[in-house]
Structure formats: structure tokens, C-alpha cells
Amino acid sequence: MRLNTRILDILRQQAVGETVTICGWLRTRRDSGGLSFLEINDGSCLANLQVIVEDQLDNYESEVKKLSTGCSLRVQGALVASPAKGQAVEVRAASIEVIGWADPETYPLQKKRHSFEFLRSIAHLRSRTNALGAVTRVRSALSFAIHRFFHQQGFLQVHTPVITTSDCEGAGEMFTVTALEPGQLQGAAPFAGDFFGRRAGLTVSGQLQAEIYALSHGLVYTFGPTFRAENSNTSRHLAEFWMLEPEMAFCDLAGDMAMAETMIKALVAAALDECAADLALFEQHVAKGLIDKLTLVRDRPFVHFTYTEAVAELERSGRGFEFPVQWGIDLQAEHERYLCEEVAGAPVIVTNYPENIKPFYMRLDDDGRTVAAMDILVAGIGELVGGSQREERYDVLAARMAGAGLDREQYGWYLDLRRYGSVPHAGFGLGFERLVQFVTGMQNIRDVIPFPRTPGSAPC
Fold first, then answer.
1. Could you tell me if residue 136 is inside a domain?
2. 181 with 86, same domain?
3. What pTM, to 2 d.p., does this model score?
4. I need a labelling partner for 460 at 20 to 30 A (CA). Which of 216, 350, 353, 429 fits?
């Protein structure tokens, strides 16, 4: 029996008194006057279930009195109304079976608050804590909400490859995948004898492949792991992370922005509706004002600036930014947060960036200086979504690819999409971990993914 659903069903049916079987892990044990009070949790919800154990049980002295935090148990007993404050029901145990013991001398999780830094050192156990358990539930709810949202909007999911020969961002930060030994990677064509007959790497984005299916099926999305060999050991970077990337045929920049804003509002609403207890935990212990921030995002329209207007706002601010502001720079997190936290007081959509700081596939604007790109910025995070209308004109795309130094033969298939039935199309990418960070208020991105991969660290 799962704590979060079955008990609610029993209460609705007014079936208190029913015999139930609960499996879970012991959080605490307290003894008083021939009774033991056990707090059990099975990970399905934040709340523990209290189990009352009387000293008449056969294994009370031999096992129950020796239970400690972390032990796994199977409890059978009657579900009864609880006189204790803060809980509707409790279980009067008829039997307690110890499935697995946890040595109290070595078990690292005790009834106290542990720092997130410490918990990262025990990645195999940290999901048993309240905070990381709550992150897991919110992450799962958001993942499901993504699939639900795009299904309702008529999108098809496409599984794009993890191993690719296309560097979507053109930044040279791909992890190389090879079946050769280091000594074999020699000569003018070192990968010619490799498994794929050419250089391959772990994908940094599924966008280019998603475009293929958008131009045959109209509305598609891909949602999966991506990899970046960027040696950035910060609270905002991961080497492996999950990306959501929808692509829409017959769509321009305005439609792209509208879909992204609608999606963010729907995902935030899902978290508020479905994860109330977990968000209350984050509000109390991690990020004061979190629920009001999320409610604002759900209820208020996003504010729009062009890149040129955004730079003007930053220049007028008089702030001594770490990265000086001038037209043509790539906005940094400090600039993005200032715009949404202090200028707009709401999420901000910045559009029409300089073409020289954006990838080759973004549609060139009529001024020849900017592209039809957009970023959505949110408080505490900065950029949450980045997207654009894609360049659908063959000659313009070919020229931009040449300017980026891309091998025209290698990307011939991408140009073919513009030769055969090209249409205006657009899409965006959302870093899933950044979304989970935003919704939970967690400060370090390593605490919103189960097993963070960062420079020098790949636990479990």
C-alpha cells in the first residue's frame, strides 16, 4: 500500500479500521510506557505515517526496540483515526517484519538537517531525505506534465539519437564516442576506421533531428539527455542534463514565443496543483516566497523586450555589472536576472539578438544584423528557454553555415530540408534541470538531478 494514494482512498470511503500492509523505511522511533511510535515513509509523499507498536508483539523486545533510522519494514495493522495533531490516521501494528537493518553506527542519515554539499557526497542515499525526496517528486510531476501538455497540443514525441555526428551548437563541446584505442587515433583521418567510419559524439541537442520530423509531421518534440564537455564547475552547469525541444512547422517567432509561454505557465500550474506539500517544504526551508513567485508566473503575462531595448535598460541602470554591457555582447546571468527581477518584476522574453552571437540555424532578420531568436528569463535562474524561428531559406542558410565554418557535405541533409518543401518553422529548448531549480527554489543544479555529472565527478 502506497502512503499517498491508498490512504486517501480509504479516508474517502470512510473505511478507517481496515487492515492494511505498509512497506517503507523508518525515519524515527520513540519509546514511551510500553509503546513504540514509529515514523514510516515510503517515498511516495512528504508525510510520514505513524505506527503504534505495543510491547505485546512477539518481536517487540528482540527487534522493535532495536530499530533505528533507515531500517526497512513491513507493517500490518489497523488504520485508525489519529488523536495526534497534524495527521488524520495512524496504524496500530499487529505485526512488524524487519526486512533490512541499518547499522546506526554507520548510517549517515540521522534525524537532523544535513547540508546539500554533504548529501552530494552520498548520492546513493540522499534521495531518502525530505528535501531530495521532494525534488524527486516534483521532477517526476513536471516530466509527466510536459508529456501531457504536448499530447494535448497535438505534438508527437520523437526520439532523437544520443550519438550524433552533428554539432548543433557549433561550439566544439561534444564528448567524442570512439571504439578505438588512443594510439589508433592517428593520421589525417583518425576516425575513418572507427565504429561509425567518422567522428561521432554524444549529442548536445536533438534540435536538428527534430526539425526533420517537424517538416514531415508538423508538431513534434524531443525530451531526453544531452551532453556538453564544457569544463565549468559551477552551481549552474552539468555535463549531462535533460533537454526539452519542441519544433513546429508553419510557425514564426511570435508563435514560438506564445507556445513557450503557454507551456511554462502550464507546467508551473501543474506543480502548484500537484506538489503542494513538497512546495510548502521548499517555501519553509529553501526559498522564502517561492509559492508567490510561481503564482505570479502562472497568472501574469510575460514582459517583452527586444535585445536592443534590453541593453538600453541595462545601460541606464548604472549598475557595476561584472560583465560590462554594450550592444553586441551575449547577455550574462547577472544581466538576465536584473531584467526580470528588478526591471519587469515578471518573466521576460528578449528577442532579436545580434546574429554573430547566435547559432547558424536562426533566421536572419531583414536588418541583416539580428536574428529571429528569443530567450525567456526568470527570477533566480536567468535563461530558462532559448528558441528561434529557424532559417528556412536555402541560400541564406548555406551562407551562414559557410560563415560558421561548417562542412557543407556533412550537413547536406540539413540543407536538403530547405531544398524540398521548405516552410517557416520554429522551436525552442528548455533545460529541464533549470525548470526544476526554478520550481523548487534549489540553489545548486546538482541537487535537482538524481546523479549529477560534472567535471571530476560522476557518482554511482
1. yes
2. no
3. 0.94
4. 429
